Amino acid sequence: MHEKTLYKQDLHIHTEFSYGDRAVIKGMTMDLIEWLNHAEIIGISDHFEYLTGKQYKIYYETAREHSFYCGTEVDGYKEAKKAIDYNFDYYIYHCFDREKDYEGANILISSGKPVIIAHPYALGTNLEKINPECIVEINNRYIWRRADWKQELTPYRDKFKFVLSSDAHQPNWLNQEISIKVAKELGISETILF
């Protein structure tokens, strides 16, 4: 019998709570993610824009019922100013190459919670401007968008800690094979956050 290998952690996973994201399929629920059990440490990080008000409480309680860490994906400075007021375990942060977005990362860092810079190679993030307290993500979904990812990330191997993730919007995306290969080529080890 073949025994399944679990990934160490996956903190960038979306569910139906990101209802406005067309890439998230119907049925991508926390129940399904629990059943698939693909990682030792699982965190759900649905898009913050869909989690405000009463929806936040339902989201947070559902994640806790499944023993998942509760994160959120924050899109830039304006959302960072709002997301800091909610109790998340960590933040996945979109930092475009805009001065305000770099400031937004620092706002989230002030929470004392981990701040993961999401797919910087896809968003044009200038890693020179990122606070070294942030963690840089390598995920399966976007690394291929930049042919020069190795050249772009290599200078930062010693400046940042890194996490690997799937950025899953669908069950078949719950894997890290590309992320693992990239980390190996860069000569980095994943930082386990929880």
Overview of this structure, please?
A 7-stranded parallel β-sheet has the order 1-2-3-4-5-6-7. Helix 3 runs parallel beside helix 4. The protein has a single domain, classed as Metal-dependent hydrolases (TIM Barrel, Alpha-Beta Barrel). The longest helix has 12 residues. Strand 2, helix 2 and strand 3 form a beta-alpha-beta unit. It is an alpha/beta fold and 194 residues long.
Label this structure with key terms.
TIM Barrel; 29% helix; seven-stranded parallel beta sheet; globular; alpha/beta; 194 residues
Strand order of the largest sheet: 1-2-3-4-5-6-7
Morphology: globular
Spans of at least 5 consecutive residues with low confidence = none
What would CATH call the class? Alpha Beta
- What structural class do helix, strand and pairing data support? alpha/beta
Strand content: 15-25%
The name CATH uses for the topology is TIM Barrel
Q: How many independent structural domains?
A: 1
Instruction: Find the count of extended strands (DSSP E, 2+ residues).
Output: 7
Q: What is the typical, i.e. mean, pLDDT?
A: 95
Distance between the termini: 31 Å
Q: Approximately how much helix is present in the residues?
A: 25-40%
Query: CATH homologous superfamily name?
Result: Metal-dependent hydrolases
The radius of gyration computed from the alpha-carbon positions, rounded to a whole number of angstroms, is 16 Å
**Count of alpha/pi helices:** 7
In N-to-C order, the SSE pattern is EHEHEHEHEHEHEH
**Most strands sheet:** 7 strands, parallel
Q: Name the CATH architecture.
A: Alpha-Beta Barrel
